[in-house]
Amino acid sequence: MGILAYLIFFIPLLAAKESKFAMYHANQGLNVFLLALAVNVVGTIVPILGWLIILPIGNILVLVLAIMGIINASKGEMKQLPMLGKISLIK
Question: Membrane-crossing residues (predicted)?
Fold first, then answer.
């Protein structure tokens, strides 16, 4: 269930509300999703700099963070993701 949190973050919220592991990874997945949203909004608003720098680098960063989260979830670990790990939006 933790792996799904990085692909579709709300599935563990609905299916495994009692699991601390699933909720932890759902929170991390939500953080990655919000970062992706912010990168894409800012990257499309800022004309040339956004298209050439913000979008490519930001989306690669989001992809790397999602892969790190999937690897941690598949190993059964509750490691924090760099930059986003301390943010807790889901209690």
Answer: 32-65
